[in-house]
Structure formats: C-alpha cells, structure tokens
Amino acid sequence: MINGQGGKIICTKGCEGKRHDFQLLKDSKVHFQKGTAALLDSGYQGIEDIHSNSFIPEKNTKLKKLTKQQKIYNRMLSSARVLVENVIGWIKRFRILTERYRNRRKRFGLRFNLIAGIYNYELQQ
C-alpha cells in the first residue's frame, strides 16, 4: 500500500506460495478509511463491496467495446497509478519478489520491510 501524495510505502504484506493480490488484501484485513480513494488495477474486481471509494479500470469484452469516455477514464487512472508501478519496480531491483526466496521464511517479512524502509528513506534524501 502506497501513499498517493508522498509516494511512501505505508504497509506491506506477504504470504507463502502464489496468492492473488485481492485475496491477499482480504486476508490481511486492512481497512480503508471512508474518505480514502483506492486506485487499483483490474485484478481487484469486486472491491466495491469492501470499499465504495475505489477505482479500477473498465474492461473490454468481445461483445462490448470500450467507449471513448471509458478509454479516457482508464488513461487517467493508469497515469495516477504509475507511481505505484514505479515503486513496485524499485522493490523488484532487490530480487526479493522476482525470484524464489531461498532463505528462512520467518525472515522474509523482516527483509521486505527493511527494503520498504530503505525506499522510504531514499525518498527523504
């Protein structure tokens, strides 16, 4: 989870094995405040039931093409989410997310939080 104004990493959550991002969000029991806007990717379909002030991109189907308004909305949403994607890319440089983690499982959360702390420290510099 990343703060939209400063770009700081607010919280992190990991799990063993492969798990969908939305399922990980539900399992973490993170609650959004009512005034908080959540800008999410298309993997979080159904989040409107949990948080009403969330924005996900519109999807295209074979039978129903996107209108010009929906394309503009998707473009605006993706330009606002680029900060999140840049942070994910920065964290992937440490290869803790991109490759198999071969160290002790208990220390994964600690090491991931340390990387997030390094990123937040670099923002202040």
Largest sheet: 2 strands, parallel
- Strand share of the residues? under 5%
Low-confidence stretches: none
Spatially, the strands of the biggest sheet line up as 1-2
Q: What percent of the residues sit in helical stretches (DSSP H or I)?
A: 40-55%
From the helix content, strand content and strand pairing, which structural class follows? Answer: mainly alpha
Rg measurement, Å: 16 Å
Order of helices and strands: HEEHH
Number of domains: 1
In quaternary terms, these chains amount to: single chain
Global shape: globular
User: What average pLDDT do the residues reach?
Assistant: 84
End-to-end separation: 21 Å
Number of helical regions: 3
Q: Tally of extended strands?
A: 2
Architecture overview:
This protein has 125 residues and is mostly helical. The chain has one domain. Helices cover 40% and strands 3% of the residues. The chain is built from 3 helices and 2 strands; from the N terminus they run αββαα. It has helices spanning 21-28, 68-92, 108-124, and strands spanning 38-39, 54-55. Strands 1-2 form a two-stranded parallel ribbon. The protein is globular and about 50 Å long. It starts with 20 loop residues before the first helix and ends with a helix. The mean pLDDT is 84.
